[in-house]
Structures are given as structure tokens and as C-alpha cells.
Amino acid sequence: MTEKDILQMKQEDERSLDIQAAQDFAERYLAAEQDSQEWTSMAAALTILLDDPSRIIRKAIANVLAAAPNAPGHVVRCLASDVDEVAIPILKASPILSDAELVDLFAEGNEAVQAAIAERANLSASVCAAICEVGSESACSVLLRNSSAQVLQSSLLRLAQRFEDRPDMCDQLLRTRDLPLSTRYELLMRLAENLDDHPIVLERVPENQRHTFLSDAEDKVVLRLALEAGLEDLPDFVEHLRINGKLTTRLLLRAVCCGRMRFFAAALANLGQVPLPRLCKLLVTVRRSALQAILRKAGLPLKSHQAFLLAIDVARQAKADFTYDLALDEARLLTETLLQEMQDGTLGADEDVIAFLRRFAIDVARLEARMLVKNNTLQVTKAA
After folding, report:
1. Tell me: the pLDDT tens digits for 110-130?
2. d(CA 140, CA 156)
3. Same domain, 61 and 164
4. Is residue 228 part of a domain?
5. Number of domains in the chain
6. Are residues 332 and 289 in the same domain?
7. Nearest to 263 by CA among 320, 188, 332, 303
8. Which tens digits make up the pLDDT trace of 167-181?
9. What is the DSSP letter of 110?
10. Helix, strand, coil: what percent of the chain each, to 5?
11. 61 and 134, same structural domain?
């Protein structure tokens, strides 16, 4: 059957066209010179074939036209609204469809349609925003895997709001580099909330220790994020913690023991309302009395001052300037020195603080041991 046969057929006539012929018509249209007789004939034939009862024929045409920038617009738009089998090749690739059309098709489409649009290369920020606002979980998951999509931070925040109780989506979002620290923290806290009734926790952690276990888990999340944070991200993160009542003395003690000096300095600067660069300089240069004044201004309890003052002294001896974090072995030495000094009764140390320090010392030792095992494993793997 030729294009003339198709053009001469009446609507009620029975069509009989094979897949190869349909593909040939589409390819001839793309190869034809614009406004030529063949170009016009092929466009008309393809328009008629939009009503072909065989979806296989329509799919064959869609596969040929999908990525073509010179495909007939009306044909492409018709195919984009066809059944999934026909529409998906067009939705995934056609450059003919505008952002506005993609948003409309997405809003009206089922999960398969939404996923196809989310998979498109170089999706604009506006389309990504629409997907994040109303898309299904599966479509949003596809979008997060689309490395060429222009997903703005505001769109990521919207996803975090919509899917904060969905562990799989939270996990995907946490692997996204542009997610703000404060949002990462909130997602991780959502996941941590589920630990309370997790089988492993119920089995291995005594009931009277679960509150401490979960509090420690939250602190470890904060310090892990602080370790990965850039210097410019820390002030906003610390402020978020302060507003939510999470910037505790226990957390700052743990930060010191784990060598998170940047976080410790950023927290003191926030609590004491001192510019961070100036505070870092003060921590390195001023006398103990001035340091104690800084701790008082930050609102830290008096019983914790001795521990913080000793930690700052040890950090100074290690030549730390509070603009970088200590290595794990340095952090372990700091914690052991701090604990040894605090256990001397002549210092009048608070027993609660010493108990904290003992627990933190164990955590730091475990971290160092795990890192050592990990590094040895990597060396063995490389050698093999």
C-alpha cells in the first residue's frame, strides 16, 4: 500500500499496512525537502495513519519520529496523547514538545507517562519543579536518577517535604549532592525515629538504655554531616540545630571528642553571637579566663567548662586552629588526655561529664578501629 492508496481511502475502509511501510512513510517525511510534494504527501499519510486501529503501526511511526526535531508537530502531539505503548517513545525524547506541553501531559498522565517524561534528557528546571510538586513517587525517583535534569534546590526541598516518611525516597534524596545540610538532617532524623521499634534495637538494646542509644544516634548523624560539610554550610546548619533545640552541651562535648573542631567553633560562634573567623582566632590566642567568658556567653553550663577548656588546651598543643577537623587518631588522643585530666579529683570534675567522656572515648576508639580495618581492606583489594 502506497501513500496514494492511504490518501484515497475513506474513513470506513479497512486498512492493511505493515510495520515496515509505516516506518518508511515516517522516514521519507523526515528525509523530504520541506514544502515539497513528497513532504506534503507524507505528512498527510502520517496524519491519516494516526487513526490506524493497530497500535503497532502507530508505535512504529512514533519510534521513527521520537527524536526528530523536524517531525510534524501535529503528528507528534497526537502520538504523545496515545496509549502508553505508542506515547512513551515520544514522551521520552521528542524535542517538539514544549515545557508547557510536557507539564500538561505529566499532570494528566499515569505513572508510566510520568516516568517517561521524568526520564527525558536535559529536563528544564520548570518541568522538574512540576514533577517534584505533583509527580508520583516512582516518577520522582526516576527524576532523581536523571543526572541531566535541572533539579533546583527548592524542588529537592519539596520532594523532602512530600516523601519524608518514605525510606526509599529519603535514601535517594540523601545521595543527592545539592540537598541542604539542614534537610539532610531532617530526613535522617525521620529515619532515626523508626529505630525505636526496629527489631535489632528491641533485641540488642536494653529498654532502660534505648533513650541514650537513640540520642547518641542523633548526635552521630549531626557530626557525620558536619564532617562532610563545607565551611560555608556550617553556620546555617548550626542555626537550624539551635532553633530546633538540638545544639546541646552533650553534642558539643561529643564534637570535641570526635575532633569536629569546625563544628565546635561554628556552634560557639552561633551561641555566643561572635563572628566565626574572630572566634576561631580567639580559641587559639586568648587566655583561659577569656575562653571561660566565651563559654559563659554561649550559655554552656558551668560544670562543662573544665572539659571544654581542657579540650581547647589539648587542641592548641596539637596546633589545631579550629578551621579544620582532627584526624581520628588525634581525636582519640585528645579524648584520652581529656578523660585522664578530668578524672583527677583535684580538678573538681563533674561525674556526669566524666561519664559522657568515657562513653565518647569508646565511640572514638571504635571509629578509629573500623577506619583502620577499612583502609587495610582497601589496600589488600588494590594489591590483589
Report:
1. 999 999 999 999 999 999 999
2. 10
3. no
4. no
5. 3
6. yes
7. 320
8. 889 889 988 878 888
9. -
10. 75, 0, 25
11. no
